[in-house]
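Field reference: sequence -> structure
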Amino acid sequence: MDATSAIDQMFSHFAVVQDPRRQHPMTHHSLEAILIITILGTMCGAQNWVEIEPWGEARQAWLSEFLELPYGIPSHDTFGRVFALLDPAGLHQAFLSGMSVLATLCEEVIALDGKTIRHSLDRADGKGPMHVVSAWASRNELVLAQCKVDAKSNEITALSELLSMLHLEGSVVTIDAMGCQVEIARQILDQGGEYVLSLKENQPSLYIDGEELFAWLKGPHPIDTEIRLGYHEQVDGGHGRVETRKVRCTPALESLVSGARWPGLMSLVMVESTRYISGQDHLEQRYSISSLAGDTDADAKRFNGVIRTHWAIENRVHWVLDVVMAEDSNRTRKGESAQNLALMRKPALNLLRRETSVKAGFAAKQKRAGWDHNYLLKILAQT
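Structure field:
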């Protein structure tokens, strides 16, 4: 695929984005050029407008093969000004369209988790750091969508908005304790999905009931055919530590737990994790509720996989955004620019993650894309 075809194919999804500027003779740079240079520069390791401008200048001859650049590369001030004005909803709709081409419909574990971009705060305007909730599809290895947590709202509202953007049929949705809410569980079921929600003290009655139930089940008690317990154990080692995970699951009987008001609640899960580090054992117990069945050893094994998969969003998404793409230290903040630039990192992350012909780390792929136009086009051809 030549450069023009690959770029046209990618930008076709962004054609719906409205240019926020009033068109007049002083509008020198097209929105198409600004968006494409931003995405390509981000793929090649540029982390902000100040870095995107010189990247574009260094690649201007190549970019001119498929972009109209009569006035050269936009300045970093132009990039910042346009992205501060862009409507995040329109840009996000374009992102959803592009990612839907990459995603294949299959049974997924879709992890929802929030992340704070710490240096996006603006003390002069009284704004705190921006918090974004993202949806990660484990099997497709894609960030499917993101939603900003409004300063006057909370993460629960953002989770509901994010879920409404997703196709959940046949998938299992995992959320940490913040998402352990009756309405969130109902929405997941209404959209055709199943849920595994982390349970902590923010649901005190259910948490205490679950804690007491598993304590009783682990101890000596009369055999009761009504209470079934699934069990799975896994031992992992590496980097000077050994971790033993014991997963127990049992049906959420209304007679034993205060879970009657939870839609579709089928099971309670306990993960008992023991880590042996430097000669000492560290024990941690975590609880979840689920709409999946939970009364056999096979169910316990499945829960172990689903719960472990949830935390892939930390390593596969958040870690890359912070350590490789320097999102946490980025000081972009004016208007809508922080939210829009955070979104621009997602197609770069998705496309680089899914390109597997080069066996290298994420940062190495970015460098290679910057050095080798053919490799960059190979990444873009996935769209």
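Note: The chain has a mean pLDDT of 87.
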